[in-house]
Each structure stands twice: as C-alpha cells, then as structure tokens.
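Homework help board

Subject: predicted structure for assignment chain

Our instructor gave us this sequence and asked us to write out the predicted structure in token form, then describe one feature. I got the tokens but I'm not sure how to describe them. Can anyone check?
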Amino acid sequence: MRKREENVMTVREAGKKGGMRTSQTHGHDFYEEIGRKGGQKGGPKVKSLIDAGKKSLGGS
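My token output:
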C-alpha cells in the first residue's frame, strides 16, 4: 500500500476550492445562468425522441 501524503486534498476540499474560485472569477450572474440551464429539461429534440419511443412501444 502507498503511504498517503500529508498535503493531499480530499475530493470535498477540492470541490469547495474550485467552487470558491469560480465564484470569485465569474460572480453571481454566472450562477444564475447555469441554474437556468440546469432547470431546462431537454428541449424539442428530446421531446420528439421520447414521443417516438412511446409510439413505437404502443403508448400514447
């Protein structure tokens, strides 16, 4: 087994550090925009694919 280095950052610490840096460089508006994008489900193409799949299975 390898010895763990004392300066190793945990995944949680790395995520927090990255989030803090992103916050400093991009600001509040950036988070609002990616929040809007994350809230959108698919779009017309995804809807048409779902509808086609349901139709092929005999669903409505």
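Reply (TA_rk): Your tokens look well-formed. For the description, you could write something like this. The chain has a mean pLDDT of 82. That's the kind of observation they're looking for.
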